[in-house]
Amino acid sequence: MIKEWELLESRVDRDYRVFRIQSELAVSPRTNKVGTFYTIDTRDWVNVIPVTPDGKIVMIKQYRHGSKEVTLEIPGGLVDEHDPREAAERELLEETGYQGNSAELLGFVNPNPAIFNNLCHTYLIENAQEVSEKTLDPNEDIEVVLMSPEEIPAIIARGGINHSLVIVAFHFFFMKNPCLR
Questions:
Q1: What is the Rg, in whole angstroms, of the alpha carbon atoms belonging to the chain?
Q2: Does residue 150 have a pLDDT over 80?
Q3: Domain of 25?
Q4: Which string of DSSP letters, residue by residue, matches 15-57?
Q5: Which of 43, 63, 168, 171 has the fewest CB atoms within 10 Å, i.e. is most exposed?
């Protein structure tokens, strides 16, 4: 039976604006040997699937420095406080200028439990309508794109959406709405 490891020490190795690298010493319950592990300590994230009154999904395109490409995604970002629902509504408005009904939690995942300590929450916001201009951060450049939900599976299949957390978000969405696949 797998058991939890005993944590002997945890310290900040590096501190960046949106995450910290933790260096941890832990004892294996199987071997009693001490191992060194590096984990990423960061706040929770949110993803939002906004659906307009006529059933379109509000998507965004933006350049991603990690992959060095323009990606097709859904709005999302960091949870500033402890309320992911509030963060979902805020991120939608900031990145797209859209607002809608109160956010409904569809599900959450741990992005990579081997190294991350956070969760990514996926919310559905229905009746999303453009109510203002986008209020982007200085380092953001986002284009809003409206798409039919029926288009999404084929776009994912051909690699047009390749962000794993966006794909998981659509998994939650289509589990709730199987007739849209």
A1: 19
A2: yes
A3: 6-42
A4: E-SSEEEEEEEEE-TTT--EEEEEEEEE--EEEEEEE-TTS-E
A5: 63
177 Cβ neighbours under 8 A, 6+ residues apart = 149
List CB contacts of 143: < 8 A, sequence separation 6 or more.
Answer: 60, 61, 62
Where are any strands of DSSP class E within 66-181? 69-73, 76-78, 98-99, 104-109, 120-126, 129-130, 142-147
Q: Are strands 45-51 and 120-126 parallel, antiparallel or unpaired?
A: parallel
Residue 1 lies in a domain: no
SS3 at position 135: coil
pLDDT at 89 over 80: yes
- Residue 179, classed as helix, strand or coil, is helix
Q: Are residues 23 and 62 in the same domain?
A: no
Residue 180 is predicted with a pLDDT of 67
| pTM score above 0.90 | yes
The Cα 58–Cα 172 span in angstroms is: 16
Query: Quick check: 57 and 37 in contact, CB under 8 A?
Result: no
pLDDT digits 0-9 by tens, 97-144: 999 999 999 999 999 999 999 999 999 999 999 999 999 989 999 999
**Same-domain status, 164 and 85:** yes
